[in-house]
């Protein structure tokens, strides 16, 4: 059921009707590619998913500090008028906030919380029956007065920022084949880039490049190595055509190198012996040219992917001193339980250290080859398509870290992220590819294994150069929100039980907490308006973890989605 409005909430205004056009009209704002490039350095607006092309999710604002964060209070709250997942990141541009949900796109007066317009997404009545892993939208892209988003039925849409009217809409794939889209698009090199979801249904992953003005498809890139591609021999014959490697989270962009970095997901089916070999390019990082989709380099985190260890987690870009040498790096806390640091110019592996509390599928990463060192359990799984006994694997398919994006503080040189501490009990079986909206896993899930201490998650501060934890705050239920760090010395995070929290970036000590009324899976942002710093987060949880993991902490958390904005009381 929907939550009541709290404080200065506003009722829903009538939805605006669509207007169609083949080509974008004159923009309503002077936002440019330069604004996107400088987003991380301009604290007033939040113009990109990730608060910058490098997705550091760090704010240079310093007004809210450990000394005054106890005076942080809500200044407005707006209902999103649904009970689905609110795992989205708002944008704030020229005093207006823009929010994407699965069913609508909204514009909000950022200072007051008043809804300005609300445009519905026209979805087929049966679309929910074809979705794998959640009903939600993670965010938007924006440029020159226009918004860009994806939809659950695998379409890409352009809207006017001024009034929410639809400008163009194009189909990326057929949702009835198991494809869907929940991620925010990426604008890079003057091209709109999107990925795809659906790896559990025997689909084939891809990336598309679109013309920003017309929606015309500029290029298409499959992410599995099929017939005629380099790496095709890493698959059994024909398996690459249904082999997964979905691209369901947004990539990052380095404009100096003109490279986009995009992670790929699990193999289809999960059973590695059915697919055979490394199954390139599942569970990999791809570096591509945004103008053409050309692959420049690849790195595979989990060859063959025996355990649904997607490599789609956010690739965070930074400049670090590696072995005393200034280096352009890409960082990822992978679902397989290891934190990777790559040279983003070449894909060379620089660091690979275990961050998950328990890992039993690999004993480490071979730094010379870049490959995991299989334990006997994993070696047997790779060879045996049909097993007679259940095995217990750590981390589970939820990963040592799931999709919720981390932040990186470039001053402290620390990454902050939420972990998951859970195992799974599985038995691999032969399974033909099913028809319709049915999972193709090639295994039976017998349940999950909880840690002995009952702490299923933690918030971690991580030194990527030293490859070790600096501090850790454990929790009974894992946090499923994004993380925000600020130059004021704070780390913000949301819990699945509804608390929005601020921690001291130096020590991890909890300094402030506010109950938002539903679980938080949103991506918090910091922004400034007329000299005041604000913190915004969406609340509303309906997660796959909550549905499957049997977590007793989440038994009485209500649904209901809304946007919360906070400021320090003067």
Beta strand %: 35-45%
Which superfamily, in CATH terms, is the homologous superfamily?
Quinoprotein alcohol dehydrogenase-like superfamily
Helix content: under 10%
Query: From the 3D coordinates, which CATH architecture would you assign?
Result: 8 Propeller
Question: Can you walk me through this structure?
Answer:
This protein has 570 residues and is mainly β. It has a single domain, classed as 8 Propeller (Methanol Dehydrogenase, Chain A), CATH 2.140.10. It is 4% helix and 36% strand. It contains 4 helices and 38 strands. The strands form 10 sheets. A 5-stranded mixed beta sheet has the order 1-32-33-34-35, with no helix packed on it. Strands 2-38-37-36 form a 4-stranded antiparallel beta sheet, with no helix packed on it. The protein is globular.
Q: Which tags fit this structure?
A:
570 residues; mainly beta; Methanol Dehydrogenase, Chain A; 5-stranded mixed beta sheet
How would you sum up this structure in a few lines?
With 570 residues, the chain is mainly β. It is built from four helices and 38 strands. The two termini are 35 Å apart.
SSE layout and pairings?
Elements lengths: L32 H5 L20 E2 L12 E8 L11 E3 L2 E5 L3 E6 L5 E6 L20 E3 L2 E5 L4 E6 L5 E6 L14 E3 L2 E4 L11 E5 L6 E6 L29 E3 L4 E5 L8 H4 L8 E5 L6 E6 L15 E7 L2 E9 L4 E6 L5 E6 L7 E4 L6 E3 L1 H8 L7 E3 L13 E3 L4 E7 L2 E6 L14 E7 L7 E7 L4 E8 L8 E3 L3 E5 L4 E6 L5 E6 L9 E5 L2 E8 L4 H5 L13 E7 L2
Parallel strand pairs: 1-32
Antiparallel strand pairs: 2-38, 3-4, 4-5, 5-6, 7-8, 8-9, 9-10, 11-12, 12-13, 13-14, 15-16, 16-17, 17-18, 19-20, 20-21, 21-22, 23-24, 25-28, 26-27, 27-30, 28-29, 30-31, 32-33, 33-34, 34-35, 36-37, 37-38
